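Please produce the structure of this protein holding D-mannose.
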Amino acid sequence: MKLTFRWYGEKDSISLKYIRQIPNMSGVVTAVYDTPVGDAWSDKSVAKLKELCVGSGLEMEVIESIPVHEDIKMGCGKRDLYIENYCKNIRTVAKHGVKCVCYNFMPVFDWLRTTMHHPNKDGSDSLAYSYEDFLKVDPNNLHLPGWDESYTPEELQELLKAYKNISHAQLFDNLVYFLKKVIPVCEEVGINMAIHPDDPPWDIFGLPRIISNEKDLDALFAAVPSTRNGLTLCTGSFGAGRKNNLVRMAEKYTAQGRVHFVHLRNVLWTDDKDSFCEVGHCSKDGSLNMAAIVKALVDNGFNGYVRPDHGRNIWDEGGKPGYGLYDRALGAAYINGLFEAAQYIKK
Ligand code: DNO
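Below is the modeled complex.
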């Protein structure tokens, strides 16, 4: 595996120098943030990002994300133009040595939580999702940090209205339409597409979500069989769905050559509904068996990219919720240990 760390570009308060000092760190996962969703990224912006990374002794082989324009998801408007731009972006990043692109196909909203500062017993705080609080959330008045895009209230209302006519099947067809154009370009330039699961893995605000479980993934891979069409195995996102068996998913999709990127974090299920809280990375702290997941990856020949995902806010760090330095660095050290042990005892 190659250990990586998410870096939000020059505006990120965490320096590349600090990231480089995390044991076994190979590179960063980043993106161009100066271009509207759907437009083509300039070669200059990508070259500059790469130069910053390489200048700090870090690789830039993973992009998270090249966001997908809503017209592509809805299958309307300028979708063909946006897909063309997407293909241009794939070619541009490939030219600069990128090997893997993480993206998602969630309508309107990316990940969703009901609080950014859930107080933990250890005095830290973390992101959490409460079933009860969710019932009170107004989608028209939501601002979550870390999203790749945001809308004015009017745009949001329009979008939510437009999605009323889009079924799960339609959204799925639009994803397949998109991939049938993008994957041949990926094959040509050597890029793996790694779809990020729905987070949390169920419909929200009546919007359809289609990458929530094994059934969804099986359908996606059957529709576009090239292994360039792969997955970001995000343990925390799938793991919020209690029916998802992460060890089995890691085994199965790694063996199929579909797991190009892994986001490792733990979640704790906090009631008998859908509520969960983000915790430290260790198995003992949450509901997922992190050691068994990593062992399943290693035993099945995983050789992709891994990054620690959301951390708690510890040691009074503050900063972007989920994306501080300290707890993600502790997570990285733990992940190194799990991989080293799993490789040592590989069956
Ligand atoms: C949240 C992230 C997601 C992810 C996108 C990929 O912290 O895992 O925002 O980057 O869904 O497109």
